[in-house]
Hints:
- The structure holds two protein chains of two kinds.
- By secondary structure, chain A is an alpha/beta fold.
- Helices cover 43% and strands 14% of the residues of chain A.
- Chain A contains 21 helices and twelve strands.
- Chain A has helices spanning 12-23, 26-29, 47-54, 70-79, 94-106, 121-126, 147-153, 175-181, 189-202, 216-225, 246-260, 272-280, 292-299, 339-351, 353-361, 370-373, 376-380, 391-399, 413-422, 424-429, 434-451, and strands at 58-63, 83-88, 113-117, 154-155, 158-159, 162-174, 231-233, 238-241, 285-289, 307-311, 324-332, 455-456.
- In chain A, the strands form three sheets. In chain A, strands 1, 2, 3, 6, 9, 10 and 11 form a seven-stranded mixed β-sheet that branches.
- Chain A starts with 11 loop residues before the first helix and ends with a strand.
- Chain B is mainly α.
- In chain B, a hairpin with a 3-residue loop joins strand 1 and strand 2.
- The longest helix of chain B is centred in the first third of the chain and has 40 residues, at 18-57.
- Chain B has helices at 18-57, 74-80, 83-115, 122-134, 137-148, 154-162, 175-200, 204-212, 217-228, 230-245, 249-254, 268-277, 282-313, and strands at 60-63, 67-70.
- The chains are: A alpha/beta, B mainly alpha.
Amino acid sequence: MKPHPFRRTAAPVVASLSALALVACTGGSEDGSDSGNGGGETEAITAEQFEEAMSTPTELTFWSWVPDIQNQVDMFEEAYPEIDVDYVNVGQGAEHYQQMRTAIQAGSGAPDVAQVEYQHLASFRLGGDLLDLTPYLQEDLSAAYPDWVWSQVSADSGLWGIPQDTGPLGSLYRTDLFADAGIEVPTTWDEFAQAAADYREAMPDSYLTNMPGNDPGQFVGLLWQAGARPFAFDGAETVTIDLDSPEVLQVVEYWQGLIADDLVSVDPDFNDQWYQALANGKYASWQVAAWGPVFLQGTAGNTSGLWAASTLPQWEEGQNISGNWGGSTDAVLSSTDNPIAATELARWINVDEEPATAFAEEQFLFPPSLSILESEEFLAEESEFYGGQQVNATFAEISETVPTDDFGWLPFMDFAYSAYNETLGSAIADRGDLVAGLQAWEAELVEYAESQGFTVE
Amino acid sequence: MTSTAPPAPAQPRPQRTANTLSTLRRREARAGYLFVLPFMIVFVAMLIVPLGYSGYLSVFREQLIGGTSFVGLENYARALSDATFTGGVARMALFLVMQVPIMLGLALLFALVLDSGRLRLQKFVRLAIFIPYAVPGVISALMWGYLYGPDFGPFAQLGEATGLGSPDFLSADFMLFSIMNIVTWGFIGYNMIIMYSALRSIPTEIYEAARVDGAGEVRIATAIKIPALRPALVLTTIFSVIGTFQLFNEPNILRTIAPNVIGNGYTPNLYAYNLAFVGQEVNYAAAIAFLLGFVIMVVSYIFQLTTSRKEATR
């Protein structure tokens, strides 16, 4: 799920104090992380071991910011009465990760199971803080998910999290505004650029879409679609930063054109201004992940029935390719004392039919597992907000078009995304030189990676 | 601050013999320490120890790959040549010389007007000026963020309705002034109360004497009230210096609506925070925090020095 913008209210004093706590135990933690990386030799557990672990009274701590996930936790506790799960919401997105890092470094207080978005798995693997789940699973789950989802959680012959939701990218658009402006739904990016110009001419107060300067997640999703593979991490000390490939430049130069000609707006997203703009029709479309439709319903409720969903515009006619933006896993921390029960918690709530269906039907997480993506009930659901369209079916089809080759991440995506806002993002917001911004972003990433001791390729 | 030093303890009564006096004194001293103890424990645990620890941290360097190594003053050297940090300090210095005089000037004016006693609804006015200070800084930043909004904020709407247009309060050119406005709005009342209470402590006989000598209200204000306010002015200025360099909440909240204007290092405190929690460079952040403390000390000291010199030459 997309980390909604969170508001830090911590006073600097608090911040510096927790900064101190953060490092309090760094000295001793180096050798304590032996159970994470490199533990590939561990033998798979037997059914007896599993039965024993699940019938022994155990306490687990679970951190997540999924709304109402307590429901799934309750179901789990009902299925395994001996396991007591303490569910805590320590904050969304960046706040959640800061708390995790602090607890990990302090050597105590870390959860057994935690929500981790796909792009941050690598950064927690780096310190050996995630448990390889492979030996603790009774079954091979790889066939239960689309290949691209599986490749996001498995790397270096380990399994580092159980997929919880995903965010394949599509388009949401205002059918009424499109009709008023007399434009068709563009199927290619070329058509999209033409539509943006036509739309602007017909509706001078609004834009075909908005390209925020503060949403690296969305931008990286668009790079993903274009076939760029800008990041990689070998699980040890080598990172790949490739932001000057033709695929990346193609995307950046494309948006440069639209932005320079004032054909798209460049408002920051996920703040009050932007919510109002969505509700008021300032943007006629939104290129968004599968979690977007339900989110939009809550934000722009007054426009119910006026929206429709479709695929992203394509780079080549006849293609059908998407990318991914957001989504989470539940990962097990290597510091857990109860790896079997913790792994079962992560697996059960996301894989067992009852809790997994509830995620999709009640919490509206876009399901990663094929069993739900292919279930009639899920696909047939008609959404009033989208004029009765079967939005789930649309995005389920899109999910199949995310490229199956591995899309990698850096083990420091927090920094990478924050640096994006200062460089390429700033260029977008200022309607400046996007290519220069891109180069500055790459330079900052390389400098940071080298200063942190990585080998950069 | 010399002006707030406690009065010298009263001399002990001379009737007591030297012996009982010294035991009594010792006992008193012990009691004194006992009374201070709870404070000292908290003070040491919550201030001195963390301070020492972050000083210790600031001479190390921890890498994501390669672990921790001792680097001496390298982090400090890096900070001094770090354009983001020095730029942030310079921005706060500009903030200081522009915002603090306006804020304190207005606070002084309000305090004098209230003290003159010529105002109707005096209590109401005093409360009204003070109320913004009672609004938590986070809330006021959110509120102003809404007011500044470029599309749907009331100023923008008004500008559009009248055809005059309105400045983009959240643009790079305007942002610092927008923040100054929020801080001024929030802290005028606080500073006014300090000055006002200092004014109330001036004996009224002095005013009577001045009036007898034919002084008007303005003359009384410039010749009696403002000089008497000197300690309060020094106090509020030092507080403002510290507050300015530590600016954090307002820019951090305005970041959500202007993420590309307010960068990671817009203020030094924001920079230290982001270094520690986004870039995981805790050691460098500790060095930044220490340097910032040093800057505040120096600026406060220079200010005190100049004011006390003026006092001496008078």
